[in-house]
Amino acid sequence: MKRNLLFTAFLVVSLLLSYQAFSQTGDAFSYIEKYNQRLDSIKNYQAVFTVKSEIPLLNIPVTRGKMFFKWPAHYSISTYQFTVLPKQKLTPVIRFLRRANFKSIDRGIETVNSQPCKVVELHPYDTTTTVAQYTIWVDINTYMVRRIFVSEKDGSEFVYHYSYDDDADMLPSKLFYTFNYSLPHEQNVMLNPVALRVDVENSQVYEGKINIDFAYSNIRKK
Amino acid sequence: MMLQEIYKMFTRPYAKIVLLVIFVLMLIFSLAFVFEGQEYYDSLLSTFGKGVSFEGKLINGNLFAYQLFHALWLFVGLMVIFVSGGMISEEKSDGTLRMVLSRKVSKTGFFTARFMAAKLYAVIVVLFMAALSLGAGLVIFGNGELLAFDHGEFFVLTSNQALLSFGLAYLFYFLMLLTVISLSMLFSVLFKSSIKAILVTVSVIVILYFVSSLELSLFDSVKPFLFTSYFTSWSQFFTTPIDWMKLTFDAIVLIVHILIFYTASVMIFSKQEVLD
User: Fold this and answer.
1) Topology of A29-221 in CATH?
2) Across A166-170, A218-222, B211-215, B235-239, which has the greatest mean pLDDT?
3) pLDDT tens figures, A124-157
4) B31, CA 20 to 30 Å: which among A21, A37, A48, B176?
5) Domain coordinates of chain A in residue numbers?
6) pLDDT at A24
7) Please, are residues A42 and A219 in contact by the beta-carbon 8 Å criterion?
8) How many whole angstroms separate alpha carbon B79 and alpha carbon B269?
């Protein structure tokens, strides 16, 4: 009798715990889904963007370009000059993330730019992918993505910081992107055929910053 | 006499050979640039490419001219010595110097005319290089931003900035050529054999340039006094912001060397006895 009671109690506790875990997982990813649903309501838009970069060892002047979006997933970019953009260019990073492909963990609530945000950690099930982890800060009131941290298996880390104006709705008015990289020693010598001097520290990790301002026009919703 | 010297200068076989060699080198380089230029730059930019992507056309006439300049500057500098190194010594060995000087020509006037002819030749070499690299490059590959590099750092210059940088770099390169020419003419005055004059000039430049390039603290105190330490300063016109103070100083150092070599040559030459 005692044993049966103990087993029933264990079963109930286990069910409760697993339900809690399941519900927490579901809640966390639902923030991303809600963001994507809202983003999906935009049929098309175009934007003029200005890129200012601050990348050690790479000096690029301020450049401008145009961006076009057509639902569901047609993004095109044209730049007037040679320029540098974040890894995923200007496509929203988490636009195509699907629940089935990730284990999501709820990391609670944090404040980003005075806005309370749900922190969602995603780990891909696919072991062949280069991404090790996404951490996403989603505004709990508006479902706007405020920050995305991407960590790759080789140690590379990228952070996207988004700012919004009221009139652009779900589309960011500013993107501040940071990334890290190291310049191999051999590459540096090859870069510099004029002088044999090497004044760059071997395998030092540098942090690059890219600031992009957007000015939208012709935003059409479904 | 000036025109006569210029005519003589350009009828020298070496003068034409140098221009021909520059042309051949440019053709060889064009092939490499067309077939492997994009791949080479993609691999260079892949260093930053892990976290970033690049947009825009990189392979263009400016990049072609820049790379060609990097590939040719030292060769051309050394080849010019073949022309200027024999300018006085050849006349000595041929026995024609006595005949030339027997006319109503002062030694200083004669040397200055030769020096001016060599100077004009340097101008033509630089213009020839510019026309072949920048001119042909822009016609074949089109205009665009220039991805330059200096001391392990990349600089993206707009097409207008690049044009200005090329102008200034070619001007500085002309000073470098003139330094080489004036040194070779000094040795041309000192030696009777033109081969000896050419070889000594090449040896001096190679040794001094080698010392200038070495990253050893042992030579740090010597380097500012070596004119070869300023040979690569032209590449700094492709950086942003341009260090005008440093480049002006570098140019002044080269000009002072040119004046020293010229004055020394004139002094030695005017005191030399011209014998058959």
Assistant:
1) outer membrane lipoprotein receptor (LolB), chain A (2.50.20)
2) B235-239
3) 999 888 899 999 999 998 888 999 999 988 888 8
4) B176
5) 29-221
6) 43
7) yes
8) 24
How far apart are the C-alpha atoms of B244 and B224, rounded to whole Å? 17
For residue B233, the chain A residue with the least C-alpha distance is A194
pLDDT grade for A22, boundaries at 50, 70 and 90? very low
Q: How far apart are CA B212 and CA B222, in angstroms?
A: 9
Dist. CA B184–CA B93, nearest whole Å = 16
Contact A87 B52 (CB under 8 A): yes
Instruction: Evaluate the CA torsion angle B213, B217, B219, B225 in order and state its sign.
Output: positive
Is the complex ipTM higher than 0.85? no
Say how many CB pairs under 8 Å bridge A and B: 113
Residue with tokens 């990049």: B63
Contact residues, chain A to chain B, C-beta under 8 Å? 55, 57-61, 65, 77, 79, 81-89, 152, 154, 156, 158, 179-181, 183-184, 187-188, 190-200, 208, 210
Query: For B151, which residue in chain A has the nearest alpha carbon?
Result: A192
Distance between CA A209 and CA A56 in Å, rounded? Answer: 9
Mark yes or no for CB contact A199/B152 under 8 Å.
yes
Positions in chain B whose pLDDT score sits under 70:
1-2, 49, 274-276
Best probe of the A interface among B38, B53, B234, by most A CBs < 10 A, is B53
Tokens at B127, concatenated: 């213009």
Categorize the per-residue pLDDT at A189 as very low, low, confident or very high, splitting at 50, 70 and 90. Answer: very low
Whether residue A123 has pLDDT greater than 90: yes
Residue A43 host element (H or E)? strand A42-54
Rounded distance between C-alpha atoms, residue B18 and residue B118, angstroms: 13
Q: Is the pTM of this model over 0.90?
A: no
By CB atoms closer than 10 A (0-12, 13-18, 19+), residue A109 is exposed
DSSP string, B181-231: HHHHHHHHHH-S-HHHHHHHHHHHHHHHHHHHH---GGGTTTGGG-GGGGT
**pLDDT tens per residue, range A38-63:** 888 888 999 999 999 998 888 899 99
